[in-house]
Specification:
This protein has 128 residues and is mainly α. It is built from six helices and three strands, in the order H-E-H-H-E-E-H-H-H. A three-stranded antiparallel sheet has the order 1-3-2. Strand 2 and strand 3 form a beta hairpin. Helix 1 crosses helix 3 and helix 2 packs across helix 3. The protein is globular and about 45 Å long. The C terminus is likely disordered.
Length: 128
């Protein structure tokens, strides 16, 4: 008998956890050399360990995490060269908005902008 229900899509949970962990890494919520524990993450996210393990393995493949052993999962410590490469790429992708703002809006009108946005623009102008 066929019931009128959709098929369960297991990829949603795993991709959701992957997205959360990836975002936490990108935004710096984890510190370099922090040790991640699969069980603790699963408990905090309210899920089983399997989707968390899958997300961590995917992030390790992308070199966003380091698997020293199966139980020792670490946030990588970046070298200066790696940091500068990531910064350069992010400024190329994300830095265009502040540069566009500079063209449209005189500096005296920046009072309404978020401080982080102004800082990003200033860094993009002085560090490149």
């Amino acid at each position: 008998m066929n019931y009128p229900i959709e098929h369960l899509k297991h990829s949603y949970l795993g991709s959701g956890i992957y997205g959360l962990l990836r975002e936490a890494l990108i935004t710096g919520r984890f510190q370099p050399n922090d040790r991640l524990r699969i069980r603790d993450l699963a408990e905090q996210l309210g899920t089983s360990v399997t989707p968390v393990r899958d997300a961590i393995l995917q992030l390790a493949k992308e070199q966003a995490l380091v698997l020293k052993t199966p139980r020792d999962i670490r946030v990588p410590v970046l070298t200066s060269k790696q940091y500068l490469e990531i910064r350069s790429i992010r400024l190329s992708l994300e830095g265009w908005r502040p540069k566009q703002l500079h063209r449209w809006r005189p500096r005296s009108k920046w009072r309404g902008c978020k401080p982080a946005f102004r800082t990003t623009w200033w860094r993009s102008r002085t560090m490149t």
